[in-house]
Write a structure and sequence with these properties.
The complex is a heterodimer.
Chain A lengths: L3 E5 L8 H10 L6 E6 L4 H12 L2 E8 L2 E7 L3
Parallel strand pairs in A: 1-2
Antiparallel strand pairs in A: 2-4, 3-4
Chain B lengths: L1 E5 L3 H13 L1 H5 L4 E6 L3 E3 L4 H4 L10 E3 H4 L4 E5 L2 E5 L4 E4 L4 E3 L2 E4 L3 E3 L7 H4 L6 H13 L3 E7 L8 H16 L5 E6 L9 H14 L2 E3 L4 E5 L4 E4 L4 E3 L2 E5 L2 E3 L1 H5 L23 E3 L12 H21 L10 E8 L2 E7 L12 H18 L4
Parallel strand pairs in B: 1-2, 1-9, 2-5, 9-19, 11-12, 11-17, 12-13
Antiparallel strand pairs in B: 3-4, 6-7, 7-8, 10-18, 14-15, 15-16, 20-21
Helix pairs in contact in B: 1-10
Classes of the chains: A alpha+beta, B alpha/beta.
Chain lengths: ~80, ~375
């Protein structure tokens, strides 16, 4: 059964929100969703760019009180 | 009060020494018992492996007897933990020992995880173990030319290592006089040459100037050793003559098998460093699930904050400060130059241009580390 996982990457300059997502996504199952919290506005561009290249799916990207909430579904 | 520290690496050792000094009178009076359990009687300076791989340090420079680094008052046993019974405030060990605690600190570190990429372990060089670093040195010395591909797993220990080993190999081949026969090809998992934007802004033109090629958005998928091809999750492939990897890491097996955390990473509060749902269990260093660098300096600064808090809990019944996410990383930049990145949860790094002075300070720190482990630096 698909799960939803929260990745709190606020304040993560290194390795950074995208790298945290890649690491967690690797050990997830196809269909799992990962919601990344990021305080870096660059994530709103970096994460969708990688998600498209890697063949996964963007579910949502929104900003709330200075924090980006970006949700990705593992597709393969 | 019984304080039990699991792990004799950088974080565990700095914490134990910090506590032994802060609580020396309580330990002498028998009010506090401070115990460390480790898997080895040796303390291993892991950052030295980078230098071992290019012949700039020797293995015996990387080890000290663990006992020689510990303050008096610390009870030390080589007896790895095999079972955690957190509800009973108790651990069991390989020798069938049982240790009770009031406060537990898990600092068991991480391990190389190459198995998940087919063909990687058999075909790539890596320097994250002594054996691996010495094998890599031999390969670098015997290499006669061709394409050297650097590939990076996620998550990995020491985020600066991919850049550092690339610059250091450039120097190595230059000194050997074969640089004109070598093509360095750097790959990286995200869309720039380093996760830190400011570091990438500095490193990319350095690569261009040195003729180092690079490909971003490259996450290893498999290695075809027969045809010497590395393939990526993103659908790219690159031919190599020598493959050097910064391997992905996992937490220790006992952490995973005992249910303390997925992939061996203990989930903790980013400020107090306590395990989620536990007030008397803490984790520091590589062991944690925090989204910050797995690096010695992280373990060091976490150990200092936690040492202060555990000591104040003993003395006044409450912690005094939060861990602010502080990390400090040297960055070897080749040509006897280095720079550094210093940052925390709120302040991004702003690395300055590399200098010889910072490189020589790093070389000096490789020797001064032992004072750092003792908690003196």
């Amino acid at each position: 059964m698909a799960e939803k996982m929260l990745i709190d990457a606020r304040g993560s300059f290194c390795p950074g929100p995208l790298m945290e997502l890649i690491a967690k996504l690797k050990s997830g199952q196809v269909g799992d969703e990962f919601e990344v919290l990021s305080s870096d506005k660059g994530s709103a561009k970096d994460i969708p760019e990688w998600v498209e290249k890697a063949g996964h799916e963007m579910v949502e990207s929104r900003q709330d009180k200075g924090v980006w909430h970006i949700t990705v579904r593992k597709k393969r | 009060m019984k304080i039990l520290i699991i792990g004799g690496g950088m974080g565990g050792t700095i914490l134990a020494n910090n506590l032994a000094r802060r609580l020396s009178s309580e330990i002498k009076a028998g009010k506090v018992n401070l115990t460390m359990l480790s898997a080895s009687d040796q303390h291993f300076y892991q950052p030295g492996l980078l230098y071992l791989a290019v012949g700039q340090m020797m293995p015996d420079e990387l080890y000290r007897d663990q006992v020689s680094l510990l303050e008096p008052g610390i009870e030390f046993h080589v007896d790895p933990v095999t079972e955690f019974h957190l509800d009973d405030n108790q651990v069991k060990t390989q020798s069938d020992g049982t240790y009770d605690y009031d406060v537990l600190v898990v600092a068991t570190g991480s391990r190389v995880n190459m198995e998940e990429i087919p063909g990687l372990a058999e075909n790539a060089e890596m320097f994250y173990t002594e054996e691996g670093a010495l094998k890599m040195l031999k390969s670098l010395r015997e290499f006669e030319g061709g394409r050297v591909v650097v590939c990076v797993g996620v998550p990995h220990k020491c985020p600066m290592a991919p850049l550092e080993i690339t610059f250091m190999m450039h120097d190595f081949f230059k000194v050997r006089g074969i640089l004109d026969k070598v093509e360095l090809y750097y790959t990286y998992p995200i869309g720039r040459t380093h996760s830190l934007e400011n570091v990438a802004k500095w490193a990319t033109p350095e690569f261009d100037q040195l003729g180092i090629k690079y490909e971003t958005f490259f996450n290893m998928k498999e290695v075809d050793g027969k045809n010497k091809i590395l393939r990526s999750e993103e659908g790219a492939e690159v031919q190599y003559d020598l493959l050097v990897t910064i391997p992905a890491h996992k937490g220790m097996e006992v952490i995973e098998s005992q249910g303390l955390g997925k992939d061996g990473w203990v989930p903790i509060d980013r400020l107090r460093l306590n395990m989620e749902g536990r007030d008397n269990v803490f984790a520091i260093g590589d062991t944690t699930n925090l989204p910050i660098s797995k690096a010695g300096s992280t373990a060091h600064f976490e150990a200092e904050a936690l040492g202060e808090n555990i000591a104040s809990m003993v003395k006044i019944g409450q912690p005094t400060r939060d861990y602010d996410g502080k990390v400090f990383c040297f960055i070897e930049a080749g040509k006897d130059r280095a720079t550094y990145a210093s940052f925390d949860y709120l302040n991004p790094p702003d690395p300055k241009p590399p200098t010889r002075a910072v490189h020589w300070f790093k070389v000096a720190y490789n020797q001064m580390y032992w004072a750092s482990a003792r908690g003196l630096l």
